[in-house]
Amino acid sequence: MVSTWWSVEVDCADHRAQARFWASVLGWKVMVESDEEMAIAKDETSWPGMVFSNVPEAKTVKNRLHIDLRPDDQAAEVARLEGMGATRAEIGQGEVPWVVMADPEGNEFCVLTARQQA
User: Fold this and answer.
1) What are the tens digits of pLDDT across the range 8-24?
2) Cβ-proximal residues to 13 (8 Å cutoff; 6+ apart), any chain
């Protein structure tokens, strides 16, 4: 027997704002909304998704798990994300081809370069 991946859980100070930010980033929809949590997914049939829940404590250290985004145009996507409230993040990555960013609550994620076609 094996487990089935269901979702990525994200602890937040403001679960509604975080869910809406990531739904906009990914072009996903809100599937569940309550006072305790919000869940987003590509569509009604594409679970797993992301679930955002309020927690009392603030983020204090670098994420141990993060999301990688791979847009067709890295520079345009970085600009779009900055316009949505994301910021560039320095986590000691040095000279790399990806851009490390943080969502509005400081969770790091990476914007990669476009994948080369084979």
Assistant:
1) 999 999 999 999 999 99
2) 54, 55, 58, 105
Strand partners, 33: 38
Provide the 3-class DSSP secondary structure of residue 6.
Answer: coil
The residues, ordered by sequence, that sit 6+ positions from 94 with a Cβ below 8 Å of its Cβ are none
pLDDT digits (tens, 9 = 90+) for 94-113: 899 999 999 999 999 999 99
pTM of the model: 0.89
Say which DSSP state 36 is in.
S
Q: How far is CA 103 from the centre of its chain?
A: 7
CB 93 within 8 A of CB 87: no
All structural domains of the chain, each given as residue ranges with its CATH number in brackets, are: 7-56 (3.30.720.120), 63-118 (3.10.180.10)
Pairing, β 108-111 against β 67-69: parallel
Query: By the 8 A CB rule, do 59 and 13 touch?
Result: no
Closest CA to 38 of 25, 24, 20: 20
